[in-house]
Automatic annotation (TrEMBL):
Domain Mannitol dehydrogenase C-terminal: 226-347
Coiled coil: none
Name of this protein: Altronate oxidoreductase
Biological process terms in GO annotation: D-galacturonate catabolic process; mannitol catabolic process
Residues of the Mannitol dehydrogenase N-terminal domain: 8-216
Amino acid sequence: MVIVRPIESAFPPSLSTQDGLYTTIIRGLNERGEAVSDARLIRSVNREISVYADYDAFLQLAHNPDMRFVFSNTTEAGISYHPGDRFEDAPAVSYPAKLTRLLYERYSHFAGAADKGWIIIPCELIDYNGEALRELVLRYAHEWALPAAFITWLQEANAFCSTLVDRIVTGYPRDEAGAIEGQLGYKDGFLATAEHFYLFVIQGPKSLAAELRLDKLPLNVLIVDDIKPYKERKVAILNGAHTALVPVAYQAGLDTVGEAMNDPEICAFVEKAIYAEIIPVLDLPRAELESFASAVTGRFRNPYIKHQLLSIALNGMTKFRTRILPQLLAGQEKSGKLPTRLTFALAR
């Protein structure tokens, strides 16, 4: 595995200074509701290269016959069009333009071999990120007047998979780094912390599971035909419950989601809103929805994450329209009356 730094910055230092090694601290509540912390040494990274400091090394990646997957996480702003990008830039500014150049390098090196295409899996948090990235790559290919045969290869030999990523990664534990390093027995400048829960949904062919070895590993990774229901589930249950509890909990004098979930009355309000008013109007198997909801309430109780109610309240009415209103209206249509708790959240 090779990490490519897509921006022109010397900070943080290259992961290669630690031979690609770093520690992730997984912290949260286990199935019994107990606080747990698990340190995992990540050994899968071979090296990191900077596309700005070593552009030739970046292009050389395309020559590796065994390279099959391209994952990206360049933030929501990363999958975007930059009008000044050109083929001969070393490198172009935008991630889609860099990827277009890298794909053309691979196409040229392997003479357009159909079995040398890539499975491209963007993790940026935008709707249908795979489709958005594919359209931008094709746009650059046309603007740069690249050969028609390359564009055909691009469309037929490569797959752009849309994804949904769900995990809270709280990053470098600045205030706790010294104590954690003392427990580990070594220094790690790339410590990362994350919650226990994770979900990775990939829209793609079922054959992808075998290529990713998902049949060999007990991972919460789903290969699906359409990510839309899973996005709707996350928005409705996780984000919707957040938005519903904020006005109630804040006016009760609380400051964080964790405090709200430790209050018996507010916890009951949130759980009844989820199970009685949100889940019944969603289009996925109820058992699957309830399992996700159980994980969500556990995540809300995570003592390692201090999620401020006021930060969730920002742009509250806009969030209400997207996260709660669809379920509120669907519930009214289904039962003939307004769902009590979702309506109460709006009234507060």
